[in-house]
Design a protein that fits this description.
This protein is α+β, with helices and mostly antiparallel strands. It has three domains: 176 residues, Formiminotransferase, N-terminal subdomain (Formiminotransferase-cyclodeaminase, Chain B, domain 1, 2-Layer Sandwich), CATH 3.30.990; 99 residues, Alpha-Beta Plaits, CATH 3.30.70; 170 residues, Up-down Bundle (Four Helix Bundle (Hemerythrin (Met), subunit A)), CATH 1.20.120.680. Helices cover 52% and strands 15% of the residues. It has 15 helices and eleven strands. The strands form two sheets. Strands 1, 2, 3, 4, 5, 6 and 7 form a seven-stranded mixed beta sheet that branches. A hairpin with a 4-residue loop joins strand 3 and strand 4. The longest helix is centred in the C-terminal third of the chain and has 36 residues. The mean pLDDT is 90.
Length: 485
């Protein structure tokens, strides 16, 4: 079972100073479990957008760490850029990615808002799905007047009172909007013209607030001498990038203006680009014909990805899965030494036994690899049982059954690991001498797998309200450990 995951996309009012952006990057990646996916810095807008994914708790810690750096290093009284802004950390949205609900992201936004306001003394406004008032759902409504305008209003106009923090602007860091939302795509289209009035006119025509396309925010800017229609697509399943591009292209053509290029700021779900290509090709089922996803499906998750999840701070995968993986690695090494022995004339006398060890090691490797996932799935059943209301009569029985199941999985690991210990010792004694160190490593991995598995049996049995239900499981696991010693 994979750990829950959220996306967080903090926007900072700095797109030119490499040292500050590096400090922001270090603040985010220094938190265990955070995976930084993308950084986009725009000198003209003087803004940078960091996109990372992390388990829910880690996402709050990382966002706060980066906000702390931005508060220390970014001075809005000296900042200028094309993009509207009201804070050094301008906006921090949380987005549900995997096994996380929008309500979970609203809770994360509120938690970060409360901590940032208290620690950094920054006024915080909750927006989008986390908004406490209807008029604060749209970010442009909160940011109206930007840093300078809000500086004059806050503390005087009750409508400008923040949700958290002081009723005064932070002298250099301004104010921050924190929220929860679906995937948003920041999408810009460059016109083959320098007249920004054309971009502003097209933006007004297509944005939702002016009666245009649904779920679209749009403005016009001049960037590097060209007119740019800058957009936030609030829900690509309502209005896709392809739909927006067609609308802008049509409006520009009516003004005898062409399109130079488009750009995505940050990341975009692959379906947005895939659907655009499918529409152009009039292809009804593009996903069914893609090569790379098919390859990824048969290859399964990468080891790097699994290790990232293990290090990510979530409850799964955990020690039980790691123990099973250690056992699978031990089996792979035993099989390797056996293969280096079978067919070698120097070890003719060991051939029959080496072939038997090879077959058994391969079978144990497959079994222990399955147990890596089975352990996480068993934990999920325990968690589901404990999420039942305490007054639910089914809760105690469900928890007991889940814990017994969760103990049976590491017991299967212990049996496999104990057997591998014996096989590693035997192949080390009779097998290829050049691979003796590999057999020793396999032996130590099997020993670690056994110890970890027994501990997981013990923990689950001791958690039973009636430990007697799992007594026989624990006794067998401890007996395997004694015999191995």
């Amino acid at each position: 079972m994979r750990a829950p995951l959220v996306e967080c996309v903090p926007n900072f009012s700095e797109g030119r100073d490499a040292a500050t952006m590096e400090a922001l990057r270090r603040a985010l990646t220094g938190v265990p479990g955070v995976r930084l996916l993308d950084v986009q810095a725009d000198p003209a807008h003087n803004r940078s957008v960091f996109t990372f994914v992390a388990p829910p708790d880690a996402s709050v810690v990382a966002a706060l760490a980066a906000m702390r750096v931005a508060t220390e290093r970014i001075d809005l009284t000296r900042h200028s850029g094309e993009h509207p802004r009201m804070g050094a950390t301008d906006v921090v949205p949380f987005v549900p990615v995997r096994d996380v609900t929008m309500d979970d992201c609203v809770a994360l936004a509120r938690r970060l808002a409360e901590r940032a306001a208290a620690e950094l003394q920054i006024p915080i406004y909750l927006y989008a799905k986390a908004a406490t008032r209807p008029e604060r759902e749209r970010l442009p409504d909160i940011r109206k007047g930007e840093f300078e305008g809000l500086r004059e209003r806050i503390g005087k106009d009750p409508a400008a009172d923040p949700d958290f923090g002081p009723k005064r602007i932070h002298r250099t860091a301004g104010a921050t909007a924190i929220g929860a939302r679906p995937f948003l795509v920041a999408f810009n289209i460059y016109l083959d013209a320098s007249d920004v009035a054309i971009a502003k006119d097209i933006a007004k025509r297509i944005r939702t607030s002016s009666g245009g396309l649904p779920a679209v925010q749009a403005s016009g800017f001049e960037v590097a001498g060209k007119a740019q229609v800058s957009m936030n697509l609030l829900d690509i399943d309502v209005t896709s990038p392809a739909t927006v591009f067609a609308a802008v292209e049509s409006a520009a053509r009516q003004r005898s203006v062409g399109i130079l290029k488009s750009e995505v700021v940050g990341l975009v779900p692959e379906r947005a680009v895939l659907d655009a290509g499918a529409a152009s090709l009039k292809l009804p089922d593009p996903g069914a014909h893609l090569l790379e996803p098919k390859i990824r499906a048969v290859e399964g998750p990468t080891l790097d990805g699994w290790l990232d999840e293990l290090a990510g701070g979530g409850p799964v995968p955990g020690g039980g899965s790691a123990a099973a993986l250690a056992g699978a690695l031990a089996a792979a090494l035993v099989a390797m030494v056996a293969r280096l022995t079978v067919g070698r004339k120097a070890y003719a006398g060991a051939q029959p036994r080496a072939a038997e060890i090879l077959a058994e090691a391969d079978a144990l490797r497959a079994q222990l690899r399955r147990l890596v996932d089975d352990d996480a799935a068993a934990y999920a059943k325990v968690s589901a049982a404990y999420r039942l209301p305490k007054d639910d009569p089914r809760r105690a029985q469900a928890a007991g059954e889940a814990l017994v199941g969760a103990a049976q999985t590491p017991l299967a690991m212990a049996r496999g690991a104990a057997r591998l210990l014996a096989l590693a010792r035997e192949i080390g004694a009779i097998g290829n001498r050049n691979a003796r160190s590999d057999a020793l490593v396999g032996e130590e991995l099997a020993r670690a797998a056994l110890a970890g598995a027994v501990e997981n049996v013990r923990v689950n049995v001791e958690s039973l309200s009636e430990p007697g239900l799992g007594k026989s499981l624990l006794e067998e696991a401890e007996q395997l450990e004694r015999e191995a010693s």
